[in-house]
Amino acid sequence: MELRADSCGLEVALTIIGGKWKPLVLFHLSPGPRRFGELKRLVTGISEKVLIQQLRELADDGVITRRDYQTVPPKVDYEMTPFGLSLAQALKPLCAWGDENRVRIGELQKEAQSTAS
After folding, report:
1. Cα separations in angstroms, 57 against 41, 67, 71, 73
2. Which molecular function term from Gene Ontology is one that the record holds (predicted)?
3. Of 35, 27, 44, residue with least CA distance to 94
């Protein structure tokens, strides 16, 4: 997506973290480097194909780095760049909001499901 000069900051940020999976991938990378298999287990529900795509896009955007150790068997890990770490800091308030509103959101989702049935 091409940004206009008058794009708001949220629109700019969403060009990097837009979608369902990227914020979760970043959350799990924030403590430190992780291997692909670890991320696959931690990001519940993501397919291997989609995880590969999301990691590639985050690397292309300079948010993470992919480190290939050139070993047999192959070993690759992913780590946040300083740019990515600054983004992780920006996501922390959103995580806190989710934690604070977890019960209410669960109740709203149950209510919506019962209304739809």
Report:
1. 20, 15, 24, 25
2. DNA binding
3. 27
Collapsed DSSP state (helix, strand, coil) of residue 64: strand
4 DSSP 8-state letter: P
Q: What is the pLDDT of residues 15-71, one digit of tens each?
A: 999 889 999 999 999 999 999 999 999 999 999 999 999 999 999 999 999 999 999
Domains of the chain as residue ranges with CATH: 9-92 (1.10.10.10)
Judged by DSSP in three states, 37 sits in: helix
Give the Cα-Cα-Cα angle 29, 54, 24 (nearest 5 degrees): 40
